[in-house]
Design goal:
This protein is mainly beta. It has one helix and twelve strands; from the N terminus they run αββββββββββββ. The chain has one helix spanning about 1-25, and strands spanning about 25, 30-40, 45-55, 60-65, 70-80, 85-90, 95, 100-105, 110-115, 125-135, 135-145, 170-175.
């Protein structure tokens, strides 16, 4: 009976160790690096989250959606300039992440859009974000909020739209 109890305890430990990995899908093929959001002014209804998604799997994956308790909706968006006008639209079908490669979500490009913020994003705070992948399942991350004036990852990002063709946010077309 003692041997059976030891084996049962060992099996229970193995199952308990596997539960967190199962709850996040495989979780091992996608690595989320440097997630962050910018602080938003009072009254802002939208915000954005940036990060790098590394896929170590031999097969491509796809970021199909996200959720967070800080916003009514969360969508995967792309920002681009078409005929001198900044456009932002939801990425149909999700964002591909190549096998053995990365997808970069950065100001002025792909990003996770927070729509219907429940309160402003404040510098120094953090919030939870759950990412959904076609193959890797769900991955939960904690997103730190950086100050509004913090340096951008690349020139021409959302924080420097006044330098964009057309001169201001007034020339942005949301689709």
């Amino acid at each position: 009976m003692h041997r059976f109890s030891a084996k049962l305890a060992f099996a229970a430990l193995l199952i308990a160790a596997a539960i967190p990995a199962f709850a996040q899908g495989t979780g091992t093929s996608i690595k989320v690096e440097d997630p962050y959001a910018r602080a938003t002014p009072a009254g802002a209804r939208t915000g954005a989250v940036y990060m790098t998604l590394d896929n170590s799997a031999k097969d491509a994956d796809r970021l199909t959606g996200a959720s967070s308790d800080v916003a009514a909706q969360v969508q995967i968006h792309e920002m681009s300039v078409v005929n001198g006008i900044m456009q932002m639209r939801e990425v149909a079908g999700g964002l591909p992440i190549p096998a053995g490669g990365s997808a970069v979500l950065a100001p002025g490009s792909y990003h996770v859009m927070l729509i219907g913020l429940k309160k402003p994003l404040m510098a120094g705070e953090t919030f939870p974000l759950t990412l959904r992948f076609e193959k890797a399942g769900t991955i939960s991350v904690t997103v730190p909020v950086k100050a509004m004036g913090a340096p951008q990852d690349k020139p021409g990002g959302m924080g420097s739209m006044h330098d964009a063709p057309g001169g201001s946010m007034n020339h942005m077309d949301m689709k």
